[in-house]
Design a protein that fits this description.
mainly alpha
Amino acid sequence: MTGKSGVRVCACIGLLLFSSVASAADTLEQRVGRLEHKLESQALVDMVLRLDMLEQELQQLRGQMEVQTHSINGLRQRQRDLYLDIDRRLSRLEREAGASAPIATPPPASASSSPVAPAPVAPAPVTAKSPPAQVADAPAVPVDPEEAKKERAAYQLAFDQLRGLHYEQAITAFSAFLKEYPDGRYAAIAQYWIGEANYAQRNFKQAVVDYQTLLQRYPQSSKLAEAMLKIGYSQYELGDKAEARKVLTDLAHRYPDTTEAGQANAFLQKLRGEGN
């Protein structure tokens, strides 16, 4: 009896220990499972929060893009309106000049004579009360009506490209126009538009060359102040602030009563604020 009782006691103790171990294992597994569930839940919460933040940022970016797109479209429309307004004024001035200027034939040049280029003359400052400049910024010379018509058509072809914001095509067309009519009625303004087309594309280095060509080749153009202003802006964009300050200061002194002079002075003040 004693041997059998000992065996039973040992068996009971073994069963109790096994149950305890199994129960402890189950408890540990349950705790690990609950912990994993909490971690998974927290990860899901974090993921949802991140998605919400990303969605908000995306909405903000979309709003900013819409604002920028609206601003760009507005600038493009104003640029088109500006070109159209300038073209209308040029056309009107051309008609007025054509109606008032008689057509004549130049006298024959003698064999010993040679053309002499006029000395560069600084144009008078343009003020708000000044009359509008002539269309081509060129000296009045007798023009054949058919040739004038062809010149106008060639200029209009180039200007249409510019008005459509096709800058490279406009540059090509205006360059071809200047080769055909280097001293024509629209030569100076064509050179100016080449500079503007490069400036609009942020080709500042080439724009400076184009505007300087206008200053040197067409010293009586009414666009000199505007060209100098854009040269100053371009030099600033190219990082040459000293040259920008020099050009803008010269502009303010040469054309003190113009809108461009006011813009130049404002930009010079900005340069001083930057310590330049």
